Each structure stands twice: as C-alpha cells, then as structure tokens.
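Limitations

Structures in this collection are predictions, not experimental determinations, and the ligand pose is part of the prediction. Treat each record accordingly. The example that follows, with zinc ion as the small molecule, is included so readers can see exactly what is and is not provided: the inputs are given verbatim, and the output is the predicted complex.
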Amino acid sequence: MSRRYIRHSSIVKAWATLGEECPFELLRADPGEPGCFGCGWRTPTPDAAERLGDSFSEWDLVGGLLEKAHLVDHSADPSLDDDPLNYALLCRRCHRSMTRTVFGVGDAEAAISWILGRPEREWAYQLLTDSPEIRAAVDQSNKREYARALDKLRDGLDAELARERTCAS
Ligand SMILES: [Zn+2]
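Predicted complex:
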C-alpha cells in the first residue's frame, strides 16, 4: 500500500490555516519559523531559507530536527495517515517522550493536550543553536551534512544539559 508523503510545510500550512482555532501557540505566534510544537524550541535553518518564496517552505529544510508525530496512531486509524492535521512536528526529545507516554493511541485530543503540556525548552539550548557559528557551519553544507551536524550538536547539548541537571539535584 502506498502512502502519500506529507511534507512538514503541508502540516504547518494545514494547522496555520485554522487561525485562532489552531491549538499550537508556536504556530499562532509565527508559522513561518520552524520549531517544536511541544517545547517551542526554534530550530536553526540555513540562510538559504530566507530566499525561499513560500512562507512555510523553511519547515522543509530542518532535516531530522523536527519529526512527524501521529496524533491518532496508524494502528488505530490508518486512513488518517494522509491527513496533515493528524500530525504534530516535534523535536526528537519531545517525540521520544511522547512515544513513551501512555495514552489512547486513537485519542487525538489527549495527544494534543500532552503536547501543549510539554515544558519549554531550556533558554541555553535555544541560545546555542541560534549562534552565528552554528548557522555559518550549516549554511555551507549540503542538506544531509547540515542535518548530521545539527544532530551531533543536539546530542552534545542534550548530554550537557543532562549532566547539568544531575549536578543540580
Ligand atoms: Zn520539543
């Protein structure tokens, strides 16, 4: 069975079109700037993104930094796989955490409430991923290398913050 590939930009466009009805504050605030629907982390994107015409196309350049999370799981209703409103875009940390959390696999409302309840991403993480050094490094690379560089950065920062938390407690 072939499934339609749904782009990140299509998902954002579908949610943003709901206007005030859109549950995700990040999209109501600025749907043109990619970020995690859960923790609100704004992902770095290459400068090339600024030259793109479509206001949502920047979302297609974030590589693996934002993942498509099902609201109603495939096993509960495979027909919703083609519906862009059945997806939220989450950073890997939020997505991993969502997968581990137990709620009905067919309950979109519960999934959305869970996403809205995610704690905000640490400001230090945002600051580091916004740095000009990171942006310059990724801007010169091709898309795959860009994703790889950011993956490395993310893993490093996650480990750093986990260590900080351990020291603080
Ligand atoms: Zn997140």
